[in-house]
Write a structure and sequence with these properties.
- The protein folds into two domains: about 200 residues, 3-Layer(aba) Sandwich (Rossmann fold), CATH 3.40.50; about 90 residues, Formyl transferase, C-terminal domain (Methionyl-tRNA Fmet Formyltransferase, Chain A, domain 2), CATH 3.10.25.
- Strands 5-2-1-6-7-9-10 form a seven-stranded mixed beta sheet.
- It is elongated.
- The protein has eight helices and 17 strands.
- β1, α1 and β2 form a beta-alpha-beta unit.
- α1 runs parallel beside α6.
- It is an alpha/beta fold and about 325 residues long.
């Protein structure tokens, strides 16, 4: 390997921590971290460090937290770090032309999908919602267009039938971290292949909104199950039972063909809460009423009176 590189790292959430850990353990020098400003987090809405900032502070690395990348003080502070390369992982802001031009070797991004599929903010969630059985990570060169840069490295991973977005994202964070250092070393050697993406095959993973979680019971049972998996841990799939909002945490799709209309409770006894869908039945395994803790269907039914014929979604 050539001389160690000076690297500035752009990242914010837990997904970005494993790659930062790998960089810190490598011969390369992490000379600075750029992360989002401190936000209010958790139930108490207390201001706290992002996971990436917390790790950087623990390692004694300078941290930059611009509210906007065009803030007058940011570019001089970034330039003072004299980075050779920038590495991005779920930073959460669109990088400016000035930032892209700052490191001589440019910037590379760890993206949680098999590009060009699922460009955008929520690739893992959208893949699971769509029923994908395969995903992966792509390391690409950052360009001005969103997630459209040439591919430097790619690694696949199967999505388990019961895995949630939280499960898959944690696994992809580790997979991306494992892929990062070999990619940087090959890139530094000058022998890396940069494969252009096929823009015509691109799909876009739109940012999640709370209203995305409202279950449409006319949809097929498997689609509803995938929605529940895909929206965990946020914003969660939900429905209304007897007028009260209920978060759906775990479910299975049954091939049982109900006579009832979609959204009708077909069973609410003996620990089974089953609701008719467009082409089958969704068995709710775990759920959470607002203001309450998560509980099994059996626990929920012990404290909430439901009966066959009740309607979900109203």
């Amino acid at each position: 390997m050539s001389a160690p590189l000076r690297i500035v790292y752009f990242g914010t959430p837990e997904f970005a921590v494993p790659a930062l850990e790998r960089l810190l353990a490598s011969p390369h020098h992490v000379v600075g971290v750029v992360t989002q400003p401190d936000r209010r987090r958790g139930r108490g809405q207390k201001t706290s460090d992002s996971p990436v900032k917390a790790r950087a502070v623990a390692a004694g690395i300078p941290v930059l937290q611009p509210e906007r990348l065009k803030d007058p003080a940011f570019m001089p502070a970034l330039s003072e770090l004299r980075p050779d390369l920038g590495v991005v992982a779920a930073y959460g802001k669109i990088l400016t032309d000035e930032v892209l031009a700052a490191p001589p070797l440019g910037l590379i991004n760890i993206h949680a999908s098999l590009l060009p599929k699922y460009r955008g903010a929520a690739p893992v969630h959208r893949a699971i919602i769509a029923g994908e059985t395969m995903t992966g990570v792509t390391i690409m060169r950052v360009v001005k267009a969103l997630d459209a840069g040439p591919i430097l490295a790619i690694a696949e991973r199967r999505i388990g039938p019961d895995e949630t977005s939280l499960d898959v994202e944690r696994a992809l964070a580790i997979l991306g971290a494992e892929l990062l250092i070999p990619t940087i070393d090959t890139m530094e050697s000058g022998f890396i292949n940069e494969t252009p993406q096929d823009d015509e095959s691109a799909t876009y993973a739109h940012r999640l909104k709370k209203e995305d979680g409202l279950v449409d019971w006319t949809r097929p049972a498997l689609e509803i199950r995938n929605l529940i998996r895909g929206l965990h841990p946020w914003p969660h799939a939900y429905t209304f039972l007897r007028g009260k909002r209920v978060i759906l945490l775990r479910a299975i799709a049954s091939g049982e063909q109900p006579r009832e209309q979609p959204g009708t409770v077909v069973q609410a006894q003996n620990g089974r809460l089953a609701i008719a869908a467009g082409d089958g039945v969704v068995d709710i395994g775990e759920l959470q009423a607002e203001g309450s803790r998560a509980m099994s269907a059996r626990e929920f039914l012990a404290g909430h009176h439901l009966a066959p014929g009740d309607r979900a979604g109203t």
